[in-house]
Structures are given as structure tokens and as C-alpha cells.
Design goal:
mainly alpha, three-stranded antiparallel β-sheet, 3 strands, globular
């Protein structure tokens, strides 16, 4: 029970840190970055295809947003497969 509580506390801290980093991202003209960050914080696993569908943008644009979120420390890549990438909160 104590380990589960400790793990939950660590998960909460990780999510709070990611939320602070996401909030610090500046909104650029015509940028979907804030929307992508908000979506990333709500989903346990995020793919470029899923993000593209959700935001109604191209797959390439979604990949670019995911790269920016990784660079900002909001997300981290959860897979090491070159053909399919999935991301989770850093």
C-alpha cells in the first residue's frame, strides 16, 4: 500500500511539472502548441496520428508539435521504434 501511495505521489509530481512546463510555452501566431500540450496532459499515450486527428492538422504538423513538446520537457518518447512513435508525459 505504501509503495502504491509513493508511486501515485511521484506520478502527480511528474504531471504537475509537465503542466507547468506546458503553461510556460508561448502561443505563437497560428500555433497549435498550447492545444497539443493540453491534449498531451490528458492522454496517457499520444501518437502523431492521434494528435493530428484531434487537432485536425497534418501528420507532419503533429510530429513537429510533438518534437517541440519533447524539447520543452513536457513529453518523452515512450517507444524506440523508428516506424511508430508514442509519447507520454515526461
Amino acid at each position: 500500500m505504501a509503495k502504491a501511495a509513493q508511486r501515485t505521489g511521484q506520478d502527480l509530481t511528474r504531471l504537475q511539472t509537465a503542466a507547468v512546463r506546458a503553461a510556460a510555452l508561448r502561443r505563437m501566431a497560428r500555433s497549435h502548441l498550447p492545444e497539443a500540450a493540453a491534449h498531451a496532459l490528458r492522454e496517457p499515450v499520444l501518437t502523431a496520428a492521434g494528435l493530428a486527428t484531434r487537432l485536425r492538422i497534418s501528420h507532419q504538423a503533429a510530429l513537429g508539435l510533438l518534437r517541440q513538446l519533447v524539447k520543452a520537457g513536457v513529453l518523452q518518447e515512450a517507444t524506440e521504434c523508428a516506424a511508430w512513435h508514442a509519447f507520454g508525459v515526461a
